[in-house]
Structure formats: structure tokens, C-alpha cells
Amino acid sequence: MTTNDYPPIEDRYVSLLWAEPEAAPDIAKLHAELFDPAWDIDAVRRMLVDPCASALVAKVRLREFGPPVPAGFALGRVAADEAEILSIGVSAPFQRRGLGRRLAEGLSRAAKSIGANRLFLEVAADNESARQLYAGLGFTEVGRRPGYYERRDGAAADALTLSRDLNTTT
Ligand SMILES: CC(C)(COP(=O)(O)OP(=O)(O)OC[C@H]1O[C@@H](n2cnc3c(N)ncnc32)[C@H](O)[C@@H]1OP(=O)(O)O)[C@@H](O)C(=O)NCCC(=O)NCCS
């Protein structure tokens, strides 16, 4: 069975929690699983204390009364009427089960509620899963930086800047 064969995780097993600075180790651990280079705990903590930034952590209970485990995160920042998703990730065993969409939508709603009209993010052109997620949420391409992401194997991928209007529903 691949992760794609699992059904979406029911809402009652998922908590989306606003992250306090104490959540920095959980977020850094998830970041290290998913990104290279990864942000260390201090780097994440600095973002969490930034008054313009906020982060959501998705915790999942693996059984009815089990303890919630950190499964994903989304970190964003708002400046005036524009917001940005700085990073988003879901741990591999929990991917393709609806958490990425929940996290991105959670940050979008929060950004809108404090006055942002547009939400931006950057994604590698070869990151098919993330691009599908963002397309489903109404993001469209507004810019491209050729060869921005350098891979360890020497290859490079374009960075796409995507944006969506927070005042339209998807
Ligand atoms: C991108 C990422 C956050 C998506 O999280 P996720 O929890 O797996 O996403 P969801 O289950 O909420 O999927 C939402 C939609 O995204 C798209 N999607 C997600 N994973 C996909 C995959 N492997 N292949 C194709 N489409 C995919 C689908 O359209 C999906 O909707 P569907 O399941 O109804 O078809 C996750 O794959 C991840 O953490 N990747 C590594 C880190 C990363 O690349 N972050 C983004 C950097 S810009």
C-alpha cells in the first residue's frame, strides 16, 4: 500500500494548532525531514517570535484516545495587505491525506482575517505535488526565477512565484 491509498484523515483525529515558540523543535524536526537545507531550532524560533509571522502545526492522533503527534506545519508572514507562505510541509507517512490543504487553507483564512488581500509563495517548478496542491487552492503563476534552486546533484530548478486573491473563494 502506498501513502496515496490511504483515505483522508477524519477531522476528529486532526488538530491544527497555532504554534508558540515552544513548538520550534517540532517544526524544525519536520522541516529537516522534508527540506535540504533545513532550518534549525533557533531559526524556527526566531520566526515564531516575529510578530508578523504565524505558524500552524497539524497534529494527528493515530488512534481514538492516542496522543497527538506532529505531522505537518505551515509558516507564514503578513506585511500590510500582502501575506506569504514561507514554508509548508507534511511528514511523508501523513502525506496525501488532506493535511497540506488544511494547513494552507488555515494560513489563508488567518491572513485574510487580519487584512491581507493577496497570498504569495514560492515553489520549485519540479515540485509536482506542491504545485497540484496550490493549483487546487486557486494559486496562479505570477513570476519565475530561472535556475533558482540548486540541487545537490548539480541540477537546477526554476522558482515559481504563485499568488492567489484572498477575497475570492476557491
Ligand atoms: C506539498 C505537500 C505539503 C502536500 O501536503 P499533503 O498533505 O500531502 O497534501 P494534501 O493531502 O492536502 O493534498 C492536497 C492536494 O495536493 C495535490 N497533491 C498532494 N500530493 C500530491 C502528489 N504526491 N501528487 C500529485 N498531487 C498531489 C493533490 O491535488 C491533492 O488533492 P487530492 O488528494 O484531492 O488529489 C507535501 O507533499 C510535502 O510536505 N511535500 C514536501 C515539502 C514540500 O515540497 N513543501 C512545499 C514547498 S513549496
Task: Note poorly predicted spans.
Answer: none
Unique ligands: coenzyme A
Q: And the CATH topology?
A: Aminopeptidase
- Tally of strands: 7
Count of spatially separate domains: 1
Fourth CATH level, the homologous superfamily: Gcn5-related N-acetyltransferase (GNAT)
Average residue-wise pLDDT? 94
Helical fraction: 25-40%
Strand order of the largest sheet: 1-2-3-4-5-7-6
What composes the largest sheet? 7 strands, mixed
Separation, N- and C-terminal Cα atoms: 31 Å
Q: β content, as a range?
A: 35-45%
CATH architecture: 3-Layer(aba) Sandwich
Global morphology: globular
Figure out the total of helices.
4
Could you say which structural class the secondary elements and strand pairing correspond to?
alpha+beta
CATH class: Alpha Beta
Helix/strand order, N-terminal first = EHHEEEHEHEE
What value does the Rg take, in angstroms? 16 Å
Descriptive key words:
binds coenzyme A, Aminopeptidase, seven-stranded mixed beta sheet, alpha+beta, 170 residues, 4 helices
Give an overview of the whole structure:
With 170 residues, the protein is an alpha+beta fold. It has a single domain (3-165), classed as Gcn5-related N-acetyltransferase (GNAT) (Aminopeptidase, 3-Layer(aba) Sandwich), CATH 3.40.630.30. Helix content is 26%, strand content 37%. It contains 4 helices and 7 strands, in the order E-H-H-E-E-E-H-E-H-E-E. Helix 1 (24-34) packs across helix 2 (41-49). It is globular, with a radius of gyration of 16 Å. The protein starts with 13 loop residues before the first strand and ends in a 5-residue tail after the last strand. The model has no long low-confidence stretch (mean pLDDT 94). Bound molecules: coenzyme A (COA). Coenzyme A is lined by residues 34, 88-90, 95-101, 123, 127-130, 132-133, 136.
